[in-house]
Amino acid sequence: MSCAANGGTPTTGSPTASSSPSRSASASASASTGPTQGGQTCTTAAFCDGFESQTGSTVSGVWGTSYANCQGSGTATVDSSVAHSGSKSVRIDGKGGYCNHVLVKPAKDLSGLGSVWYGRFYVRHTTALPAQHVAFAALKDSGDGGKDLRMGGQNGALQWNRESDDATLPAQSPNGVAQSRPLPTNSWNCVEFMVDGRGLLTTWLNGTAIPGLTVDGTPTADIDQQWLARSWKPAPQDLRLGWEAYGDGDDTLWYDDVAVGAQRIGC
Question: Which CATH number fits the domain that encloses residue 165?
Fold first, then answer.
């Protein structure tokens, strides 16, 4: 992929290469053999799709559209001009404000996947993460009253947020935010996560684990001390990708090559 000189809408071209997953992370990535979807290896995935089967601009087929809380002006469309691999992606025109949430989710029932979930998706966006809270991925957590476990950003850096009690990972102190990372704009980024039913969580950005987005079971000040202040035994039921803003925060995002499985899938 390449960008317009002014940082605007991406144009077609060769996808940006992603670095290989770190071997020092908590689980090794799957070998680059086996079935692929959209050019991405999916040997161990329970669900893997690169939107290549989509027809027209309306999200359909193995994907559906979801609106958290209420439906507003945010939109999700199939884009045939921008892709990480293959020729298609899903474009999210995300709008600021509570009622403009829009996400897409696999139609496949993933609730029986097991107690450990690994996810992998590629995302490209145009606007740096804002100071106010936004989310670009969500997992319904039946272990937390059906509330969402949300991945997004705040104070310009990536974070996880627990809808049930509004806990954040990392803590939104200067030291906590410094343990996270921004989500680079105008390039494809490989985002991976692991959610373990024992209450553990790991996050990788372009193959590198992010210290501030890790729950290892031992409370660490400015990182997961707040998160572990109460018992948390997650049981994810789905994966949704899109945009939720809780204040200011318009953004345009593209998603591609999404996979979910019981083992790490890799970039």
Answer: 2.60.120.200
Q: How many independent structural domains does the chain possess?
A: 1
The amino acid sitting at 91 is R
E-state strands within 183-232: 189-196, 200-205, 208-209
Pairing of strands 89-94, 251-261: antiparallel
Q: Which two tokens stand for residue 177?
A: 């935010």
Rounded Cα–Cα distance for residues 241 and 122 (Å): 11
Is 17 contained in some domain? no
Contact 250, 38 (CB under 8 A): no
Cis peptide bond prior to 170, omega within 30° of 0? yes
Q: Give per-10-residue mean pLDDT for the chain (267 aa).
A: 30 34 33 40 86 96 88 92 97 91 96 95 98 97 97 98 97 98 98 98 98 97 96 97 92 98 94
